[in-house]
Amino acid sequence: MVNLSHRMSKPVTESVLTVKDLSIILSREGRPSRIIDGISFDMFPGEIIALLGESGSGKTSIGLTLQGLLPREHLPRVTGSIRLAGIELVGAGRRTWRSARRRLVRAIPQDPMGALNPTMTIRHQMRESDGGSAGSIEDWLSRTGLPDPDRIADALPHRLSGGQRQRVLIAMAMMARPKLLIADEPTTALDVTVQAQILDLLRNLARDQQAAILFITHDLGVAASLADRVLVLYAGRIVEMGRMQELARNAAHPYSAGLLAARFDLDSDRRRPLFTLPSERTPSMNVENACAYATRCPIAQPDCTATRPPLEPVSAHSGAVACLHYEQTPFLSSKRAEAKPWPAQAIGETAALKLSNVGKTYPTGPRSIWGRRQPQQVLKSINLSIKLGECVALVGESGAGKSTLLRIAAGLLVPESGTVSRFDKLPPQVVFQDPVAALTPWLTIGEQLGERLRAVSLDSDYGRRRVGEAIKLVGLDPVLMDALPAEMSVGQCQRAVLARAVIVPPKLLLCDEPISAMDVSLAATTLNLLSDLRRRLDMAMLFVTHDLAAARIIADRIAVLKDGELVEIADPDAIIAAPQSAYTRSLVAAMPGPAAGGGR
């Protein structure tokens, strides 16, 4: 393990966690695959470390390993050392792991609903999770800022919002007073106001209980606002580590620098395509004795494919980097060609979509004395028009009614009041949040695209040509026409979903949180692709998101939805610079600052 104690000041106390030369091999499709490759780091009481990397880099596998929860069906082989509170866990028995999970380590997952038992009240689940703590359940819930803790304690999980469920999980973790807390993407699916509140809770937990927090994330802005130190993970290896503030200003590894450059915020230039990292990592590359980033690296030299770079102290900051030519990284930004501005998009006068006084209710309110649920109004007199060629972003917190509005626009739901009119008789196409789930797993990509060519056989030359053209349009290799979704990355699946949507170009494309679960480089690539397709095919677009920065990048106008009502709609720069409603001002204020900022 690289020794940086003389360079990075740390608390004068014993480490809570020491990981040394950790490697993880899982069996996938009958073949062993090295997921984590010899990583080492330590953590101290009250310290927050961000584990940062793209999807597939191995972040979640590290979190599961530290809990002893790697899936057995993958026949995990773990080597190296994990010492938690002085206890060696690699090779430990089940009883030792159960004791560690109860007393020493707790986790906050990305999906709070999946982590809670839907058939048990919060009170019951918190009693089961209690590690012998003092204080009532209501007291612990109130510490997380939950209003009406008595009601929350006696509620079933589905009665709570996403943010409330996440706070419940934090309260459950706080009750056990763990030495180590693993937070795996806990804010990814939350809107910015709730996200800011959850980050505050984690800061308080580290400070008040001196818990070490491993914060797993792909969001550089969130990491910069929270963490003391950062570990940058690529292909199962730590390629750079250091203090968050220093690394954000002076990243030494070209991958870290690329992540910084790919991040977009409220100050990004929306007139040009976003910077993106080079093409996705080639999974088949043999990197045993090479730099894993060499095939994507803009400063790679011949020795990068013949030598594995060690993690060594670096002059750029007080951390370490695994790069043979890191001294060239500062010059990357000067060599990077500025993207040409987007061509002007013609916006017509005719509406591609028009919603007039649209209202929608669901029977989700409290039950009456007769046992019936009272209707709860989800959308209230919505008036929204999207012109041909125009992109409108719909922004709002969870539960505001964004997805309901999109489903009404798609014709999947019928409103109780108002009218919906579309320019085109053909139904609009929808791009959902999870591209893998949106594809049929047993059909090839070509077959799924061909389904939209109703009158054309995919076996015909014309059918295959049309499918090939759609695949090329979204930047996919035509050989993937015969691939199954399981054989493709998440980014490739997202492009395939878009190809299916535009193979018969719609006049209206509806996007429901298409980048919310994506890492920064894939999100930037997807936004660029949507912007390009919209201009090439002259499509109107409704882009639903809780990310104000993404809305500003892609949209001609931003509509802000609060509790089922449109509170503001205006040009993106006007929304950011001079928001008119108090709610919009709170959204802008809650956005994470520039990555160069510091956490704590």
UniProtKB/TrEMBL annotation:
<keyword id="KW-1003">Cell membrane</keyword>
<dbReference type="GO" id="GO:0005886">
    <property type="term" value="C:plasma membrane"/>
</dbReference>
<dbReference type="InterPro" id="IPR017871">
    <property type="entry name" value="ABC_transporter-like_CS"/>
</dbReference>
<dbReference type="InterPro" id="IPR013563">
    <property type="entry name" value="Oligopep_ABC_C"/>
</dbReference>
<dbReference type="GO" id="GO:0015833">
    <property type="term" value="P:peptide transport"/>
</dbReference>
<dbReference type="Pfam" id="PF08352">
    <property type="entry name" value="oligo_HPY"/>
</dbReference>
<keyword id="KW-0547">Nucleotide-binding</keyword>
<comment type="similarity">
    <text>Belongs to the ABC transporter superfamily.</text>
</comment>
<keyword id="KW-0813">Transport</keyword>
<keyword id="KW-0067">ATP-binding</keyword>
<dbReference type="InterPro" id="IPR003439">
    <property type="entry name" value="ABC_transporter-like_ATP-bd"/>
</dbReference>
<dbReference type="InterPro" id="IPR050388">
    <property type="entry name" value="ABC_Ni/Peptide_Import"/>
</dbReference>
<keyword id="KW-0472">Membrane</keyword>
<feature type="domain" description="ABC transporter">
    <location>
        <begin position="17"/>
        <end position="260"/>
    </location>
</feature>
<dbReference type="InterPro" id="IPR027417">
    <property type="entry name" value="P-loop_NTPase"/>
</dbReference>
<protein>
    <submittedName>
        <fullName>Peptide ABC transporter</fullName>
    </submittedName>
</protein>
<dbReference type="GO" id="GO:0005524">
    <property type="term" value="F:ATP binding"/>
</dbReference>
<feature type="domain" description="ABC transporter">
    <location>
        <begin position="353"/>
        <end position="588"/>
    </location>
</feature>
<dbReference type="GO" id="GO:0016887">
    <property type="term" value="F:ATP hydrolysis activity"/>
</dbReference>
<dbReference type="Pfam" id="PF00005">
    <property type="entry name" value="ABC_tran"/>
</dbReference>
<dbReference type="InterPro" id="IPR003593">
    <property type="entry name" value="AAA+_ATPase"/>
</dbReference>
